[in-house]
Design brief:
It is built from 26 helices and seven strands. β5 and β6 form a beta hairpin. The protein is globular, with a radius of gyration of 25 Å. It is mostly helical. The longest helix is centred in the last third of the chain and has 37 residues. The strands form three sheets. A three-stranded mixed sheet has the order 4-6-5, sandwiched between helices. The model has no long low-confidence stretch (mean pLDDT about 95). The relative contact order is 0.11. The chain starts with a helix and ends with a helix. Bound molecules: zinc ion. The site of zinc ion (ZN) has 4 residues, from α19 and α20.
């Protein structure tokens, strides 16, 4: 609150520090005119309805209309979204965004016949359509759609499934209400003696406290509430898993995991390889916990001791210009063209740099086909983490920039499975660059530890979650009941495996499985782990390679969604169907732990 008073208002920001949205729209008035025109076009969807099976010409006309409508919508939506992010308290832009969302949802309704109408075309006829020259620009779109044919039911059955969507979300909604609204965690006294209400938002901050009693108290109080509601939480999580199992069966999938991975065309072996490789490298993680325990001078290490920094923060200061210079220097292995383009964008006006009153917190990157790849930051010169954030967001931006430049609109937008590769790759290069230039021991140790914690949080922890999702869904699919005891038992076993024999596991930690919102959207988190692994393996390859390795990677950045994610990555140089990428990332983790042990 104290800080908020010192913040400038949006209008006090220097234009040169703010993003320039004029490639999207020169001003609000231009947006308004375009929006009115766009809204009127929604009615145009009706013209194509019922005609898609007529022939390639009719189908191509529908695609042309839909894509052009969608592209105009992306431009309108991006502008409104970015305007809201500049100052979330500005009513004008809230209204602008609201109007966009409401029109977009009407448009989605109007377009909702397209998919089922195509899927209802008999297979032989569909094949002919796909092969037709006039549909060549949309061939991949069509093939991706047609893959769903064996998992699409009759019209009547599809109607029933659609009717129960809301009902099927009940378990998730009940969990969210309990978790966010009803559960109260009480008050924790911080290291300065202040009494502060414990919330989801500040729990992690308490775990960063240098005082163990503060950490322990936050831990105990938080889990007390989960213990008090454990039967309800087991019921809601079970409900969500049963719903996954039901939909997978209803749609003729062999299992819920296969159904979840189907969209990205990722075989289940990728998921299993990830888990197997992480298992092989668990001794490095145990080693790290032991280093941490010794450094903290503790007899035993508890979960609430694993977040507090074991090395004091580096005193660093990078003005915006210096941060850009540092990031560009770190990304030199990507070549002069990449660096020059990014430097122009960052010293120019791709990025909205500093905090102001009402601005959205954190950082994000928002690419669009017709505008610049914009970045929102709340940059602070004394935080090294913010330089890493800049490198990360710049990775997304360049991915958008290259894909938009290279691909037609329908194939430019990359999927989540590959999105975090481009951003984490840049963080990895920044980390290596800083390590290569770190002179003193303390600085080196800090950077090594930072990297270790990143891999621990993203590869090890997310894989543990992925394994929990796998096991619980298997139990449900085998017809065994998922009781409270079953959940706690499965999770406890995983904790023992992932934290090792010397870790002091508190009993209540087995309730952690009831506080991870991602578990209500199963088989998603593994992508964080595969993404970071691919990024590290690719950074290795580009750094130690030559022109060919670099060009392979740059081709990946230009690929958008023009191929399936595993194919894009394979062409870039990593095959996620083989254990190599995850092994490379975790071998590096092991080396970093060895180094940290020597350094401190
Ligand atoms: Zn990201």
């Amino acid at each position: 609150m104290k800080k908020a008073r010192k913040l400038p208002s949006r209008s006090q920001q220097k234009p040169s520090d703010c993003w320039d949205l004029s490639r999207l729209f020169p001003d609000d008035e231009a947006w308004e005119t375009a929006f009115r025109r766009w809204e009127k076009r929604i009615a145009g969807y009706a013209k194509h309805r019922g005609k898609l099976a007529e022939g390639p010409g009719a189908l191509a006309a529908c695609f042309r209309f839909d894509l052009s409508f969608d592209r105009a919508g992306e431009r309108l939506g991006t502008y409104a979204h970015l305007k809201v992010a500049e100052d979330t308290t500005n009513d004008t832009y809230q209204r602008m965004y609201g109007r966009f969302v409401s029109a977009a949802s009407r448009a989605a309704q109007a377009a909702s016949y397209i998919r089922p109408e195509i899927l209802a075309i008999p297979s032989g006829k569909l094949e002919k359509l796909i092969a037709d020259r006039r549909l060549a620009p949309y061939r991949l779109m069509l093939e991706r759609l047609v893959r769903h044919k064996p998992h699409t039911l009759s019209r009547k059955e599809e109607r029933l499934l659609a009717m129960q969507t809301e009902m099927a979300e009940t378990a998730t909604h009940a969990f969210e209400q309990l978790d966010n609204a009803d559960m109260k965690f009480g008050v924790v006294q911080d290291e300065k003696g202040r009494r502060i209400e414990l919330t989801h938002a500040n729990f992690l901050a308490f775990l960063h406290s240098p005082k163990r009693s503060v950490r322990r108290s936050a831990f105990t109080k938080l889990y007390r509430q989960y213990a008090d509601h454990q039967h309800t939480l087991a019921a809601t999580l079970n409900g969500s898993i049963q719903s996954d199992v039901y939909y997978a069966r209803a749609r003729n999938f062999a299992g819920s995991r296969e159904a979840a991975l189907f969209g990205d065309r990722v075989p289940e072996s990728v998921y299993d390889n990830l888990i197997a490789s992480v298992h092989r490298h668990l001794p490095s993680l145990y080693h790290y916990y032991d280093v941490r325990r010794r450094k903290m001078r503790l007899r035993d290490l508890h979960h609430y001791d694993t977040y507090v920094p074991i090395l004091s923060k580096l005193q660093t200061r990078h003005t915006w210009a210096q941060a850009v210079e540092l990031v560009i220097a770190a990304l030199a292995p990507l070549g002069s063209e990449y660096c020059a383009t990014l430097e122009r964008g960052l010293t120019g006006r791709w990025c909205d740099r500093y905090e102001n009153r009402g601005k959205q917190s954190g950082a994000f990157s928002a690419g669009s086909y017709d505008g610049d790849p914009h970045i929102l930051m709340n940059y602070q010169a004394d935080l090294l983490d913010h330089v890493f954030t800049l490198a990360h967001e710049a990775g997304h931006s360049m991915h958008s920039y290259y894909s938009a430049k290279q691909q037609p609109y329908q194939y430019y937008d990359y999927v989540i499975f590959v999105a975090e590769v481009a951003s984490t790759f840049n963080e990895e290069l920044l980390s290596r660059h800083l390590l290569a230039t770190a002179r003193d021991r303390r600085r080196r140790a800090y950077l090594v530890n930072r990297q270790i914690d990143a891999v621990r949080a993203t590869v090890f922890r997310q894989t543990m979650f992925a394994e929990f999702e796998k096991t619980t869904h298997e139990v449900a699919e085998s017809g065994e009941p998922l009781t409270l005891e079953a959940f706690r038992g499965i999770y406890r076993e995983l904790l023992e495996k992932y934290f090792g024999p010397d870790f002091a596991l508190d009993d209540e930690l087995s309730l952690e499985c009831f506080r991870i919102p991602h578990f209500y959207r199963a088989f998603y988190v593994y992508k964080y782990a595969t993404g970071m692994s691919a990024a590290i393996a690719l950074a290795d390859r580009v750094e130690s390679g030559g022109r060919r390795e670099r060009d392979d990677y740059l081709r990946f950045l230009r690929g958008g969604c023009s191929q399936d994610p595993l194919d894009l990555l394979r062409d870039a140089g990593v095959d996620m169907e083989k254990p190599h990428a995850v092994d490379t990332a975790l071998d590096r983790f092991g080396q970093l732990v060895e180094e940290l042990d020597e350094l401190i």
